[in-house]
Every structure is written in structure tokens, then in C-alpha cells.
Write a structure and sequence with these properties.
The chain has helices spanning 3-19, 21-24, 32-55, 59-64, 68-95, 97-120, 123-127, 130-159, 162-168, 174-188, 190-197, 199-207, 217-248, 260-285, 295-313, 322-351. The protein is built from 16 helices and no strands. Helix 1 (3-19) packs across helix 15 (295-313) and helix 5 (68-95) packs antiparallel against helix 11 (190-197). It is mostly helical and 352 residues long. The chain is globular. The chain has one domain.
């Protein structure tokens, strides 16, 4: 166990998750459901299988001999998480990167961190130790940072005229986006349950000779396949509905052909980048020991931080007042502090 290495891995995962949506912005003349499904094929099926086959031992036998209950619950919670991931894409449509990430993932951070130990009945034991209290303090600081960031986003929504907001986020809608973000955050927390349910797969992979750092990769093959199913069903339904609607509409002059090759490359880049968030997450989780529940907070907070920086780079906060930008920067600083406090709590646990 090395909490410092765990912190680095979680930050790398946060960088990947906070950056993956950027290539999607370059996709042209594809509907949202098409680009999301194509990118998801790389995120949830191809990349997990390819890297697990490459870096782990006896992947197929490990999965074939896993208990049926383990496979089912890992897949089922992955399915529920996939619903949250689906609505996460809608959150980006309505709120943009900085506000959308901050709201949805903030809720997800709190739910995914605290619900598993509450469900297992271990939260009291964790809070009874100094390292545990330090880690929980980090979670509380994270909540404060989320609230401050959300208030900054609300101030942004009030200050900017509609045309300015839509110049950065074409379909900006704060109320609709907030409702979707809350649902997304709660459902996305199911990933914490999915990875916990899949833990016997990681132990079987370790027994087969897989180095400890990579034992989480076989778990992702099962969990993310569940996410693929839910997203595939929804996006497929939207594609069929759009096809029926377009066939019934009057014939319109054809526009320039869609750049399919370029779009495919951008979706592949976005999908693989997205997968690396959990690639590094599982690596960081192996370094956290009994305080592994805090991995979720570290992961979510780092995603919010990097996505917020992307939001600044993409000029989503242009035109806001100095007070609003300062509030946004303050929320970001508090989130950074939360990751350091959680990391310190894990360091105390390792030292003890």
C-alpha cells in the first residue's frame, strides 16, 4: 500500500475523465446519440477487453470460473451506473463542462463514498480512528467545494445573456441540466457498488498471477459491459426514433457529407480517454488499503478540477463578473484541498 502513488493514479484518472469530452466537440453532423454510442463502444467494450487481455493473466478462465452471483451483481450495478453515465452526457449538453462536471460528479462523489461503508456497517469503525476521521473530513471539505462551485455556476447562469451562454454551450439550460445532473450523480454512484461486488474477480486474477496493480482490470470488463448494455439500448432507441422522424419529414436539400472517418477517430479518442479514468482508478484503489472507500472522493474531485480547467480553457466563464470567477476559483481550491486531506488520511492509515 502506497497512498502517495494512489493519489497520483487517481489524479491521472481524473485528468482522463475531465478531458474525454473534448474530442466530442469536434464531431460534425452526427447526432448526439450516434457519437455517444460509437465512443462508448471503445470506452465500455474494446478498451477494457484489450488492456485486460494484455496486462492480466488468464483473463478468460478467470471470468468463466467466477461465481455467477459475482458476475451478475457486478454487471447489474454496472447497468445502473450506465444509466447515470448516459445522463452524464446530457448534463454536458445542458450545462457545459465546468458546471456540468462539478454538479453531477459532486453528488456522485458523496453518494459513492459514503453509501458503501454505510451499507456494510463499517462507517462507525472508520470514524472511530484518527485516520478515518481525517479521511471523512476530506469528504466533508469536498462537499463544501462542490457547493461553492455550484453557486458559482448559478451566478454565471444569472449574469450571462442567453446568446453568450449558448456560444460556449449550444443547448445551455440550467434547470433542465440541474435535474439531469442530480439524477446522474445518484445513479453514477452505483459504480462504487459494482467495483465492490466484483472484488472476487480481482482476487481470482491475483491468484492466477496478475500483478497487484492490474488486478482491477478484469473487474472493469464485467462492470463496463453492463454500462454498455444500458447505453446501447437507450441510444439505439433514439437512433430509431430519429430515423422514423426524418423519414416522415419533407425532403430537404442535402448538406455537405458528414466526415465519417474524422468523426470515428474523434469518438475513438474520446472513448479510450474515458476508459483510462477507471484504468488509473483501479490502480489507485490497490494502493489505498482499508481506506479504499475514499478512492471515490479522490477520483471525483480530481475529475471536477480538471474539467473546470477545461471549462476555463474553452472560455465557458468569459463575460462573468470578477466575483463569480473568484467564487469559481475558490471552489476549485477547496476541491484540491479535499483531495490532499483525503490523501493525508490514507497516509496516516498506512503509517498506522
Amino acid at each position: 500500500m502506497n497512498p502517495f502513488h494512489g493519489l497520483i493514479f487517481h489524479w491521472l484518472g481524473g485528468l482522463a475523465a475531465g478531458s474525454f469530452y473534448v474530442p466530442y466537440r469536434g464531431v460534425r453532423q452526427w447526432s448526439w446519440e450516434t457519437l455517444w454510442l460509437v465512443g462508448g463502444l471503445f470506452s465500455w467494450v474494446l478498451a477494457p477487453m484489450a488492456l485486460a487481455l494484455w496486462l492480466t493473466r488468464d483473463l478468460i478462465p478467470v471470468l468463466l470460473h467466477a461465481p455467477a452471483a459475482t458476475l451478475f451483481w457486478a454487471w447489474f450495478f454496472g447497468l445502473l451506473w450506465g444509466v447515470g453515465g448516459l445522463t452524464f452526457g446530457l448534463t454536458m449538453r445542458y450545462l457545459g463542462m465546468s458546471l456540468g462536471y462539478g454538479t453531477a460528479l459532486g453528488i456522485c462523489a458523496v453518494c459513492g463514498t459514503l453509501i458503501p461503508p454505510v451499507f456494510k456497517g463499517t462507517l462507525g469503525a472508520i470514524a472511530a480512528t484518527p485516520p478515518g476521521r481525517m479521511t471523512l473530513l476530506g469528504v466533508l471539505i469536498c462537499v463544501v467545494g462542490i457547493v461553492v462551485s455550484a453557486l458559482a455556476g448559478r451566478a454565471k447562469e444569472r449574469e450571462l445573456p442567453d446568446e453568450t451562454k449558448r456560444a460556449a454551450v449550444k443547448e445551455f439550460n440550467f434547470r433542465k441540466g440541474l435535474a439531469v445532473a442530480i439524477f446522474c450523480g445518484v445513479m453514477s454512484a452505483c459504480m462504487a457498488f459494482a467495483l465492490d461486488a466484483a472484488e472476487p474477480i480481482a482476487r481470482a486474477s491475483a491468484a492466477a498471477g496478475t500483478p497487484a496493480l492490474w488486478t482491477g482490470l478484469p473487474k472493469l470488463v464485467v462492470v463496463l459491459f453492463g454500462g454498455f448494455i444500458s447505453n446501447c439500448l437507450w441510444c439505439g432507441a433514439l437512433i430509431v426514433r430519429r430515423a422514423r422522424r426524418d423519414s416522415a419529414a419533407p425532403i430537404r436539400p442535402a448538406g455537405p457529407p458528414a466526415p465519417h472517418g474524422r468523426n470515428l477517430a474523434l469518438c475513438a479518442a474520446a472513448g479510450v480517454t474515458w476508459y483510462f479514468q477507471f484504468f488509473f482508478y483501479t490502480m489507485g484503489e490497490t494502493q489505498m488499503g482499508k481506506f479504499g472507500f475514499s478512492s471515490w472522493t479522490l477520483h471525483m474531485a480530481s475529475i471536477i478540477i480538471f474539467s473546470a480547467l477545461w471549462g476555463v480553457a474553452l472560455k465557458e466563464w468569459r463575460g462573468t463578473s470578477g466575483r463569480t470567477r473568484a467564487q469559481f476559483a475558490g471552489g476549485l481550491a477547496i476541491l484540491i484541498l479535499s483531495t490532499l486531506v483525503v490523501g493525508y488520511g490514507n497516509y496516516l492509515a498506512a503509517a498506522a
